[in-house]
Here is the input.
Amino acid sequence: MSLFRRKPVTQAPAPKGGVRRVVPVTPPSPAPIADPTVEPTGPRAAPAVTFAQVTGLLGSRRFHYTLIGFSFVALLGAGAYLAVTYLFSSPHFAIKKVEFSPTVHVERSELVRLAGLKPGINIFRLSPGHIARRLKRHPWIRSASVSRILPDKLRIRVTEREARGAVLFTQKSGRCAPGQPCRETPFYLVDEQGEVFKRAEPAELEGKIIITGLLRSQYIGDPHGTGRRLKRALTLFDSYRSNPARPELSELFLQGDIVTLFMKKSGTAVHFDIQRFDSLVGTFDSFLGGVSQKLDQFSEVYMDNRENPDRIVCIPHHPPETPAGSAPEKAPGDKKNVQSEGPERLTASKHAASKKTKPLRNVMNSSPMTSPRSRRALHIPRRQRKTQVSSIR
Here is the structure.
């Protein structure tokens, strides 16, 4: 008999009436040991706080500093709230004075209405930028600046537009004649920058130059390009007006590279080439001083001949009627006054002058292979290249 006995292997009970099987039974594994480096994922109980710990926390320096910081922030917020409330509600900051820059076209009451100012309103409840934007909605106001002067004063500076002229747009429609201004088309004022800013009233047109020849569709499609043309027209008008001895103008007509000036008293239309306007205006002054006839005796004066710049063609208002069978009388022996008569009467533009005189139309149509610019020029010998005038009668 041995000291150590082998334990018998535990076997499952054999099934009744069948084959017996031996199934090993695994002993239960021991409980796992908790790892101290891994935090438990499940809920755990809060540590108990003792009275001694609370007393130590309240007596610590960190707690005192934290309490002082929170108190300061709270006092600062309360002070800011009280200050803002005082500024926005105190009658000491109610507006009592409003200073406006001098204006010509806008009344003071209109400025107050546009700015939205009311009696007793607080000065901090108004936004200077918002007031400036509201003022610039007025057509006469170009720019505006608003500033506060504490405690109860508001300063408003306004820059007005200067109406330099008026434009009458030509509109193509079925109710309007081709090339003629429509009756429904109003006048619009133009400032010094060529900007169209408001519809003109009858009183505002007094003393203004009228600019015509521009289509409304062009302005709607390209307002900046139309503005540049209007500014160019105003520049030409200023250049003409630089000499006060020149006749006063009433209208300035733009058509391509030709500008037509209409005199206010006589109604005479003078045609200039835009590219040589300054030099042609000087020639026009010499023409007024060197011709015996007055300007009001001519309906149109053409000074737009590029091939012969010294040629000036004049068309009288009422050509004298000559009896049948008699030769036309020649003018006095002033060579400046009359250059040629008879069938060689030419014009210097493609405007309505060619439609008024049949002989002129026949002369221009005699050479159909040449351009209108080349047809209207006459041959002038080199020895006669001076300022010459042709009078069509």
Notes: The longest strand covers residues 141-149. Confidence is low (pLDDT under 50) at residues 330-393.
